[in-house]
Amino acid sequence: MDIASFIGIFGGLGVVAFGAFSGGSLGGLIDIPSLFITGGGSFLCLFTTYPLSYVLGIFNVMGRVFKTFDFGEKALVQKLVSFSEKARREGILALEEEIQDLDDEFMRAGLRLVVDGTDGEVIRTLMENELNQMEGRHMVWITLVNAWATLAPGFGMLGTVIGLIGMLSNLEDKSSLGPNMAVSLVTTLYGSMMQNWLFVPISGKLGYQNSMEVKSREMVIEGVLSIQAGDNPRILAQKMLTYLTPKDRKAIESDVMKD
Amino acid sequence: MDIASFIGIFGGLGVVAFGAFSGGSLGGLIDIPSLFITGGGSFLCLFTTYPLSYVLGIFNVMGRVFKTFDFGEKALVQKLVSFSEKARREGILALEEEIQDLDDEFMRAGLRLVVDGTDGEVIRTLMENELNQMEGRHMVWITLVNAWATLAPGFGMLGTVIGLIGMLSNLEDKSSLGPNMAVSLVTTLYGSMMQNWLFVPISGKLGYQNSMEVKSREMVIEGVLSIQAGDNPRILAQKMLTYLTPKDRKAIESDVMKD
Amino acid sequence: MDIASFIGIFGGLGVVAFGAFSGGSLGGLIDIPSLFITGGGSFLCLFTTYPLSYVLGIFNVMGRVFKTFDFGEKALVQKLVSFSEKARREGILALEEEIQDLDDEFMRAGLRLVVDGTDGEVIRTLMENELNQMEGRHMVWITLVNAWATLAPGFGMLGTVIGLIGMLSNLEDKSSLGPNMAVSLVTTLYGSMMQNWLFVPISGKLGYQNSMEVKSREMVIEGVLSIQAGDNPRILAQKMLTYLTPKDRKAIESDVMKD
Amino acid sequence: MDIASFIGIFGGLGVVAFGAFSGGSLGGLIDIPSLFITGGGSFLCLFTTYPLSYVLGIFNVMGRVFKTFDFGEKALVQKLVSFSEKARREGILALEEEIQDLDDEFMRAGLRLVVDGTDGEVIRTLMENELNQMEGRHMVWITLVNAWATLAPGFGMLGTVIGLIGMLSNLEDKSSLGPNMAVSLVTTLYGSMMQNWLFVPISGKLGYQNSMEVKSREMVIEGVLSIQAGDNPRILAQKMLTYLTPKDRKAIESDVMKD
Amino acid sequence: MDIASFIGIFGGLGVVAFGAFSGGSLGGLIDIPSLFITGGGSFLCLFTTYPLSYVLGIFNVMGRVFKTFDFGEKALVQKLVSFSEKARREGILALEEEIQDLDDEFMRAGLRLVVDGTDGEVIRTLMENELNQMEGRHMVWITLVNAWATLAPGFGMLGTVIGLIGMLSNLEDKSSLGPNMAVSLVTTLYGSMMQNWLFVPISGKLGYQNSMEVKSREMVIEGVLSIQAGDNPRILAQKMLTYLTPKDRKAIESDVMKD
């Protein structure tokens, strides 16, 4: 469970509620038709752009911000270096049994290609192609959330303009002028909140998760190709260490760089 | 028929109508001169930028969002792998008769070049050139819809400013002030709706359709060149599978990777 | 004469005039000092950025949107393929006399280099350099029009703020409040119109014309280099055809692909 | 201590205070709930996007604008040229003892690879990888500050809309209308100040510091590879000098270019 | 002296003054505290981002828009072609004495490398590196002016919000309402003017001057490398001519292309 996302989403909502409370307008901010116009209208427009299955899956994908993903970079380095040492000592075929137990499907597929004696350039093409396609799929999701983030304030503004037109067409009752205008503004508020509090930060997190996953897979590609080429395990270890933060690097440096 | 686009376009319109109805201003939102200024004015400005035939064709192109396009990626993989196997078994010339029946003009042209013994580098240049030109033509259309998406709120704002100037020049009749301003705002509403509800989502869909088509053609190029180079059909199958979603891949993996 | 540009510019103006007329403010929209502040002020600022000759030439360049340019892509393909065939049949020197009559200076210069026996790589560098420089010069013009498109609404807003300040400093005469504010808004209207109705569409057209010219020159470079390399005219024809729209291609395919 | 950052941050605040004082509203600008909504709300939203440790570390990172960083480019050139001369005169192994005393960890690691006889291409990969990862980490921080710079005015606007809604729902007391609206505007002011006075300039400085550090490391990579390749120290000196400003270059030119 | 910049800056100011005069508010537009808040506040924020010496040098750099720079492209072509001919006729060492008298430091340094017998690839690296560093330094200045162009309207808006807050907190005196609001708007006016009339055009000019200088240096690099490689002076002349405008090319074509 990703505690930071909880802090962000519930904390942000709390701050807005506090603001409304201290401004004495907490009740006036909750208006179901306004929510329907802003949230529903912008959501429906997503259907025009994206296939049905994508739009319906967006809530599921946005829920990913609450999950923690561990791409285990430190363990990755240690595993790849140990494979490299084994391959050097006992030959590439010795990796066959190691591969059976691997959880990481991407690494397993790559190493199987190595064991099968596939050409290095072909392995690189296959693995990079797969990585690019994965990133492409992630990008569709991120673009989808971004599209919502842009449409929401657009529909918020639309709702306010519609409210203003209704109000201005009928100015006789001066006493209802203020409250009517207040209601009109609620859609602007909802649109702006959806953008600033929800969709932009969520799309940012999805992008961050994607960049972490891409980075860990680039490490796997680098490692698998290094094993295929029969590089010195020490050089591989050094290459892998450059991907880690200085702190993580310190933690495992002595381990993987053992002479 | 693309059901999602129907949901998006008619659903979005319905939400706006509901908003107007619940705000009691449904009648006040329909104003033909305002529609003419916003939609007509911005449409006419497209003529300044693009050739006649393009601007007149824009409604046709926008209608594409209601059509479903199936670039049949799974069938593509199976076909290319079976061609590759045949070429390996019986020689490249054996593909000649297969080509006759191909519906896919792009693949047929590519394979004919292979059968004719054209050099691989030349085939790549020809096929990529054709793909780039196709994408270039699509991009002109997408840019055209985007241009309209930008001009529409510009003309909406223009209409509102014109209305305000007319209203302010003649303030004597206080009672007509509100309704006049309401009418002025209708063009802003139309401009914003055209952008958020119509043109931006439609341009997004056209872009999505283009990216799917480009991807399927890249698969064809990859496959044709692989056949020309006499690659192992198994390697080709693996390359092709990386283009598919994990679900699609599962579905045909056992089929094309048969040993 | 480019009829589309006429439709765009005069049609767009007509729509705005119709809007003003139907809002009863046609007279109030014409204000020479406002035009001077918005159009003149933004135009003068262009002098700060660009050399004298460029700024003074901008009206001339913008006038190009009314001219039709025909880069004759179909004829280009036919000519280059016929040259290629002749060079193959009778040797490259046989092109010497053909070159004399060529109107297209760019193609002539390129083919003369071929006849002179210049190295292919040098020809490519020279021709691409020339193409890049031409595009660079076009880009300065397009940037200039874009700069005006950005400055015009800036000065429009400036004029409105100046008008508001004048009006607010002197609020005694309530009856003149409305008309004064109306006049202030006219500069906003002019700035927005210059941007949406004039400069953005014109800059778009200049960009479109440039992209067509660049494409036709790329075809010439491709063709000239193909002739220099002694490629098969059939391959050249196929390469050239990929640049054409499907319709144009159909029209001349049988002609240039004759066996 | 970076005196310029002090001038910028405290001077900028002083100017705003002066403006408020001369407008007679200094007291009215300080409102703790408004600060909490604008600053707190936007800060909390950062948690949704970034991992806990990053968000909590942001104040520390922003504090870097007050520190001066000296990447010592002049000394770098002199050191690398002297190493190059020594390696040429006494062989690469002679650098071993020099390396012990080096403070610059990046240069030391690079030179040790040279002394160990590592291949030049491998050294380049390792060093560039490390540089890219460092820049990637810096970029996350800069993006984080930029995200705050974008969210702050968003929450400022949100606060104002909330205030307006509260005010408009309750228009009876005309006398409190002005002050209530004034309070609503304070969040807009805070959001705009955080963006213009604080976060955008700070993110700019972090970007500047990063570009300086990247440049100095590129010099080290260039120098280390030049030593590995056994280049003429004079050529290395010339390469290094191109990285310096004309003034710095003058200062050490005679020193490192001694014949 | 660059007459165009004078026209732009003083003409633009004159148009704004005319607008203020015709709106009867010339006196009301001059307000020293407003100038201090908008110009001073935004200027001080630059200190947070850039080193002291850069910020203090900005006025000097902006003064460059009034200077004319002649990068003498025509003379450049003639000189490089004549050097090329001499080197071909009398050998590269014959250039030694020509170099002594060269004013252009960049060309002199390049040619000295040629005379010293430096390798072509090394010369290219050294010269391009130097060009990139020069462009990098220019870019810091241009970015600095752009930063000011963005901050100025930000502080203008800040000043207006501060003024509005002061005014709204104290609504008793209705008669001062208008003038107070007028004063508030003056900072918006100043911010917008600084951006549209001053900083954006000036930054544009600095960018234009930079692009001209970069282009002339690219010509020198091309020419020096061509001389080093012993290319035919005729080919060099043709390469150089592609950099010139059609008009300039006509003027010297017969001169440098003499057989």
TrEMBL record, chains A, B, C, D, E:
Q: Where are the transmembrane segments?
A: 7-30, 36-59, 140-169, 181-202
Which InterPro entries does the record associate with it?
MotA-like, MotA_ExbB_proton_chnl
Going by the UniProt record, its keywords in alphabetical order are: Cell membrane, Membrane, Protein transport, Transmembrane, Transmembrane helix, Transport
GO CC term, one of those recorded = plasma membrane
Gene Ontology biological-process annotations = bacterial-type flagellum-dependent swarming motility; chemotaxis; protein transport
Query: MotA/TolQ/ExbB proton channel domain: which residues?
Result: 100-219
Which compartments is it annotated to reside in? Answer: Cell membrane; Membrane
Topology within the bilayer? Multi-pass membrane protein
Q: Which family does it belong to?
A: Belongs to the exbB/tolQ family.
What name does the UniProt record give this protein?
A: Motility protein A
From what organism does this protein derive?
Teretinema zuelzerae
